[in-house]
Amino acid sequence: MNRKVPSDTALLYRSLEEQARQHPVRAIRLTGKGPEPLGLLLIDDTIPASEMASVLAGLRFTDQPRTASVEKNDEKLPDQAWLRQQLAVEMDRVRQTRLPCALLLITLSGASPLAEQGARALAPCLHPGDLLSGFQKDGLALIMPGTTVGKARKRAEEMRATLRNTAFAKGTGAVTPSLSLGIAVCHAYDTMAAEQLLALAEAELTRAATMGHDTICQNAAVRSEDSCQVTVEERAQLWMQPRKASRAAGMAA
Amino acid sequence: MTAKNKRSPKIICISSGKGGVGKTSFSVNVATALSQKGKSVLLIDGDLGLANVDVVLGLNVRHTIRETIEEGRDLASSLVEINPKFQVLPASSGVPEMANLSYEEQAFLTSSLEEIIDRFDFVLIDTAAGIGDSVLWFNTWSQENIVILTPDPTSLTDAYALIKVLNSRHDRKRFHLLINSVQSKKEGQDVFANMSMVLGRFLKITPLSLGAMPQDKSVSMAIRQQRPFLLGAPESKASLEIIAVAERIINL
What we know:
The structure holds 2 protein chains of 2 kinds.
Chain A: H1 9-20, E1 25-31, E2 37-44, H2 49-59, H3 80-97, E3 101-108, H4 113-122, E4 131-135, E5 139-145, H5 149-164, E6 168-170, E7 173-175, E8 179-186, H6 194-211, E9 216-218, H7 232-238, H8 241-252
Parallel strand pairs in A: 8-9
Antiparallel strand pairs in A: 1-2, 3-5, 3-8, 4-5, 6-7
Chain B: E1 10-15, H1 23-36, E2 41-46, H2 53-56, H3 65-71, E3 80-83, E4 86-89, H4 103-116, E5 122-127, H5 133-141, E6 144-149, H6 153-170, E7 175-182, H7 185-203, E8 208-214, H8 217-225, H9 229-232, H10 237-250
Parallel strand pairs in B: 1-5, 1-6, 2-4, 2-5, 6-7, 7-8
Antiparallel strand pairs in B: 3-4
Helix pairs in contact in B: 1-10
């Protein structure tokens, strides 16, 4: 059967998932090899896990409640209301999974069509589970579940490079938009409301816009890989002599 | 939604930084001791790529956490009963993919674990060595963190590094130290005092002492026999200490 999936199917699923949160049901995305979800399974919350696993195994699907949100060329970006809904879902998931969630806001100077073009340009940079939407009139918002500040920063740098190398069309000519990127991250040890995370990211975006030069700002220090390295001073203290002396005493005894 | 009258198990993560310091042996024996004290215990093999709990217990496991993540198999069906109060959730060995779970897989594992842990008083997680993602995540997911170390400088350094990462990147502040393979009580006290001093000075952390396990031949013999030393040599020094440690864990 050659059936074209309507462009708003992904939005329908999201909407149903959102509604499902208010009911004693569990919403499970059924995903295949392609980018589009194969379906959405709503299952009563009282069904035992063993029975549910058995049903899913029978369908040869694993429980994958989320999927990538890579928009197609002809699709319109979800709006900010949708972004807020998804952020609320993700903040709940941070509490449940104890894994962080990053929000990246990008503005491209110029008219709104640039955001749509930017979204298409960023498609190769998106990971499974990412949620991309529009933000304000000329911006993009990307929710990156499970992403720390450091990884969010690296991905933002990658996206900035991609956008810089993209030929944006405006009218009959080409434009080179200036970029601003703001990152906020919610950690399990410091959970917050969706609005709070959005406000933090917006503040970083504003800071980045003020600085100019396609700057990326984030709400926490990016800790480099060696920031937790045990220092010489710490090592010296850890290997202090009294311990060796006590060991010698123990051996003598 | 109907409110479930759920029990809240105490979730305790057991890590070390360095490998080979006796994490799995400790986990198996302390779980055995807790079960002997009437507590229901689930021991999760958190070394998802190089599991050892089944080896230490001499189990022949058919299903592991891997089947749950890869095939959606019910996690409860992988549980192995050691005694009526002690169950083990085994992991796979020799599967590098399992050592680096994706966000989706970790999230799925979380929800699957939450389905089965309510029936237990204690959930112990024996993690892999090192400071990999799964080690850090299990430590973050748990309520209490036990760090095992020996008096060797390598073990001290790695345990300290693990605590440093958990503290600075994941805001963990409460650590219980278990000093393993000490040659005397005083050595255990000295190691704890020294580590405590360094943690306090550089990280502003005050660790709690869980005890010091003495070097004991019965431990290595039990490992070769693939059974807990608490059962093989219940009167040994190591067994007496593990019983005392179990009592402290009950009172955490």
